[in-house]
Design brief:
This protein is an alpha/beta fold. It is 38% helix and 12% strand. It has three domains: 73 residues, no CATH class; 166 residues, Rossmann fold (3-Layer(aba) Sandwich), CATH 3.40.50; 45 residues, no CATH class. The relative contact order is 0.10.
Length: 354
């Protein structure tokens, strides 16, 4: 999530309201507010590390809050970077220029802040679904997925009833993941069109569903986007509303419904909105871009661009990082070169410094 101050949107963990202050200014100040609160809880740990391990001066709140921005520390955010897509029948024309993002890079972010795109670890699955799950997936049109991961609710029966009534309204097939919310306790034999799902890897399952209904955690959000599926996000707390709003603004899902406002009718309307052809097409094109994008490579380039590479290389073996510097010179030596020269009697360790 973004931690760099901007006027474009508030800190994802700060819910700012009010109309007496300029919204852009309020958004910008929300980052300092959150950092100040965080510093209150972590200052003793950070200062102990600075003084005892790094031999640095301790920081006070005024010097700590905003230090990363004042020092222009490079940031690379791992978000979806989208190319513009123009649907052409069953094909998609992808423009060469990167003109849209899930979260547009704010104009007030300096060059030291970049968006690399999502980093993923490719998997070769050995997952074998239960025969009942395989049969359910094959027995009809792709179902929707409903699950809230590690979210715990006070009244699982109420949430399950809301979901079942919404499914009765929409008349769609559904996989309901029990999760930590224990949704399965009250499903029973409510419908042959509902399958109670246990643990199942998202990157295996989501390509086989038509829509993903979830809490808006970053992991589930991007798993749905990678699969090219629209999302209905029911945020509970934290950055979940932020990701829900981001998906909604990108056109890959309806407006998020906060958990406390959730009703069967509202959920049914959101599911129907997510199944709109335009929303599905937008989510599909996002999936294409995510699977074509190499966020890891972009991140590496950003990191290398931010590092003073020339002053970090060994003067003799340039593909090695320098670990030592010969005293009184600008000669830099890697560990292997220094040890070789030391064994050969050319240099002593008293001749160099770290």
């Amino acid at each position: 999530m973004p931690w760099s101050p901007t006027r474009a949107f508030p800190h994802p963990l700060v819910n700012v309201r009010g109309n007496r202050i300029d919204p852009g200014l309020m958004n910008y100040l929300s980052y300092s507010l959150f950092e100040s609160i965080t510093w209150q809880g972590l200052s003793s740990v950070i200062n102990k590390f600075r003084s005892k391990v790094l031999a640095l001066d301790r920081l006070g709140q005024s010097s700590a809050v905003g230090a990363l921005q004042r020092l222009k520390i490079p940031h690379t955010y791992c978000w979806l970077v989208l190319i513009s897509f123009i649907p052409l029948g069953h094909s998609v024309l992808m423009e060469r220029c990167r003109s849209e993002t899930l979260i547009n890079k704010p104009a007030d972010w300096d060059a030291n802040i970049s968006i690399a795109g999502l980093m993923r670890i490719p998997r070769s699955h050995t997952y074998q679904p239960p025969s009942s799950l395989a049969q359910f997936l094959e027995s009809g049109p792709p179902p929707i997925y409903i699950g809230f991961g590690s979210i715990v609710v006070d009244n699982p029966r109420r949430l399950t009833d809301i979901i079942i009534k919404a499914l009765q309204i929409t008349k769609v097939r559904a996989l309901i993941s029990t999760g930590w919310a224990n949704l399965g306790d009250t499903i029973g034999d409510a419908s042959a069109h509902i399958y109670e799902l246990g643990d199942c890897p998202h990157d295996w399952l989501f390509p086989q569903v038509s829509c993903v209904v979830h809490h808006g955690g970053a992991g589930t959000t991007f798993a749905g986007l990678v699969a090219g599926k629209p999302s209905v996000i029911i945020p509970f707390f934290g950055d979940q509303l932020f990701w829900g709003d981001s998906v909604y603004r990108a056109g890959a899902g309806p407006k998020p419904i906060p958990w406390k406002s959730l009703t069967s009718e509202g959920l049914a309307q959101a599911i129907e909105a997510a199944m709109d052809p335009q929303v599905r097409a937008t989510a599909y094109t996002m999936g294409l871009q995510l699977n074509a994008e190499n966020g890891t490579q972009h991140a590496l380039r950003s990191i290398e661009a931010a590092l003073p590479m020339e002053t970090m290389r060994c003067s003799i073996l340039e593909d090695h990082a320098a670990a030592w510097k010969v005293r009184g010179t600008s000669i830099r030596l890697s560990a292997v070169v220094m040890e070789t020269l030391n064994v050969a009697g050319v240099l002593q360790y008293t001749d160099v410094k770290l």
